[in-house]
Amino acid sequence: MKIAVTGTIGAGKSKASSYLVSKGYPVFDTDKLVHQYYEPNGCLYDTVRVLFGPSILADDETIDRRKLGARVFSDSSALDALEAHVFPVVSEHVAALYRSIENHENMLVFFEVPMLFEAHMENEYDCIIMINADYDIRIPRLMKRGLREDDVLKRMERHMDETQKMNKSDIIVWNNDTESQLYEQLDRVLETLERRLHD
Q1: Are strands 171-174 and 2-7 parallel, antiparallel or unpaired?
Q2: Cα–Cα distance, 140 to 81 (Å, whole number)
Q3: What domains does the chain contain, in order, with CATH numbers?
Q4: Could you give the CA distance from residue 73 to residue 79 in angstroms, rounded to a whole number?
């Protein structure tokens, strides 16, 4: 089964993915794939340079993701242009990665895809797990990472409403409490998916 892990910003998608890795499952982080595309030898390096010019480059000519983020999250047309290039590459890369795993039809393979619905990729997966948490819990978590609340709100504006995401997801996992409670929920999810896989 090809499974997407998505959710709201700051809900704990990466924590959930790390737990799945610890349980021995293959997990691919699409954000990390995109970071590779922006490297000087990456497939989108030249495209991004042409789109945004030298203002998003570091002194060593590499793409500065903070500068790029500041640019696109303050200009919706710029973000649209970037995503029009990024999303199709991610979709093709995910499909290739899934096919490359031996015996993939008989195992659970996870992909962390933060912008799953926004990229209209939901139909490419057998199951969608949404990690969610209450807004007043997510904001402090994000601010601890160094994001300002206004930055978070700008990013949220680009995201589908969480109720819509929940309606489109197969499984909702709430991460409002402790790590152990998150992991207990994930264990139950894994049991359900393993049964579904082998039935």
Answers
A1: unpaired
A2: 30
A3: 2-193 (3.40.50.300)
A4: 7
Q: Which is it for strands 171-174 and 127-132: parallel, antiparallel or unpaired?
A: parallel
- pLDDT of residue 157 exceeding 90, the answer is no
Dig out the tokens for 33 from the structure.
């794939």
Structure tokens at 127: 């199951």
Residue with structure tokens 């962390």?
112
3-state secondary structure of 13: helix
Q: What are 132's two structure tokens?
A: 């969610």
Residue 1, C-beta contacts closer than 8 angstroms, at least 6 positions apart: 107, 108, 109, 126, 127, 193, 196, 197
Q: In what order do the strands lie in the sheet with 27-29?
A: 27-29, 109-112, 2-7, 127-132, 171-174
Q: Which two tokens stand for residue 167?
A: 């309606």
Distances (CA, A) of 159 to 80, 110, 120, 156, 171: 13, 21, 12, 5, 19
pLDDT in tens, 126-150: 999 999 999 899 988 888 887 777 7
Q: CA 130, CA 146: separation in Å to the nearest integer?
A: 24
Q: Is residue 122 a contact partner of residue 169, using CB atoms and an 8 Å limit?
A: no
pLDDT, tens digit (0-9, with 9 covering 90-100), for 87-132:
999 999 999 999 999 888 889 999 999 999 999 999 999 999 999 9
Full-model pTM: 0.92
